[in-house]
């Protein structure tokens, strides 16, 4: 439970280094909890949408709830990702790579839901732009995971001494 204690107490500590053994269990717990919360929340919206009989249900609320849940996960992971990147000798800014396309995707998805109800001219182009944005997001996420999985630098680097095992 050292990994939980270390990361929860360091939610605003973007300095220093964390080894893989501290980062990955914590990231796993955050992702599993996020999936459970999103699953429960989305089931409530889907049930409400299925019972709607007056045409297309309003899914904008679901998108807003998903955005809040994702923002909470990003908040819980931001400092830990930064410290893990520091441990590999990289700047924490690499952790921002997926955030731009994630944000654009969430905003775009809400417009997509509105456009399904009453499509505007150029809707197909918007749909493909959103699809391309999602591919960029997945690519940036894979790159970040690869960077986070790199071994720790054994020596001191500009972010500090290696953490104790």
List keywords for this structure.
165 residues; 70% helix; mainly alpha; 5 helices
Order of helices and strands: HHHHH
Shape: elongated
Q: Structural class of the secondary structure composition?
A: mainly alpha
Distance between the termini: 14 Å
* Percentage of residues in DSSP E strands: under 5%
Q: How many DSSP H or I helices?
A: 5
Instruction: Tell me how many strands there are.
Output: 0
Taking pLDDT < 50 over at least 5 consecutive residues as the criterion, the unreliable ranges are none
| Sheet having the most strands | none
Share of helix, binned: over 70%
Mean pLDDT: 84
Please state the CA-atom Rg, rounded to the nearest Å.
Answer: 19 Å
Question: Can you offer a commentary on this structure?
Answer:
With 165 residues, this protein is mainly α. The chain is built from 5 helices and no strands. Helix 4 runs antiparallel to helix 5. The two termini are 14 Å apart. The mean pLDDT is 84.
Layout of helices and strands, plus pairs?
Blueprint lengths: L1 H8 L10 H32 L8 H28 L9 H21 L5 H27 L16
Helix pairs in contact: 1-2, 2-3, 3-4, 4-5
């Amino acid at each position: 439970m050292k990994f939980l204690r270390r990361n929860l107490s360091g939610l605003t500590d973007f300095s220093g280094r964390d080894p893989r053994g501290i980062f990955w269990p914590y990231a796993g717990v955050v992702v599993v909890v996020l999936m459970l919360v999103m699953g429960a929340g989305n089931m409530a919206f889907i049930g409400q949408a299925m019972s709607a009989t007056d045409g297309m249900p309003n899914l904008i609320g679901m998108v807003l709830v998903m955005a809040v849940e994702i923002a909470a996960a990003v908040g819980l992971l931001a400092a830990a990702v930064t410290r893990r990147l520091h441990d590999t000798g990289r700047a924490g800014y690499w952790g921002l790579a997926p955030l731009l396309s994630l944000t654009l995707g969430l905003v775009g998805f809400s417009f997509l839901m509105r456009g399904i109800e009453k499509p505007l001219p150029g809707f197909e182009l918007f749909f493909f732009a959103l699809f391309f944005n999602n591919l960029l997001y997945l690519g940036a996420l894979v790159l970040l995971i690869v960077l986070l999985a790199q071994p720790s630098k054994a020596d001191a680097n500009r972010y500090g001494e290696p953490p104790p095992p």
